[in-house]
Write a structure and sequence with these properties.
Elements lengths: L6 H22 L5 H33 L3 H7 L7
Helix pairs in contact: 2-3
Protein name: DNA repair protein SWI5 homolog
Family: Belongs to the SWI5/SAE3 family.
Keywords: Coiled coil, DNA damage, DNA repair
Length: about 80
Amino acid sequence: MHARISASKQQARVAALQEEVESLQRELGEKEDAEKIVQRHIKLLHQYNEAKDAAQVLIGRLAALKGSTVRQIHKDLELPERD
């Protein structure tokens, strides 16, 4: 069951949310496009994941050459076992 909210409280809430949006936009920068920022972030994450995957392949090959495990190579190189 939903509680009823008066029209004046709804208007006050809408005004507060609009002010929050405007404040965040000012913080972001008036001419900044949030969608472009998100797309750039996604692109950077993709590049990071590709580099990480390539590094893991090399670590796997190094482990095979040394007759070791990937976990041991991580320890030897002082790399984290997880992200």
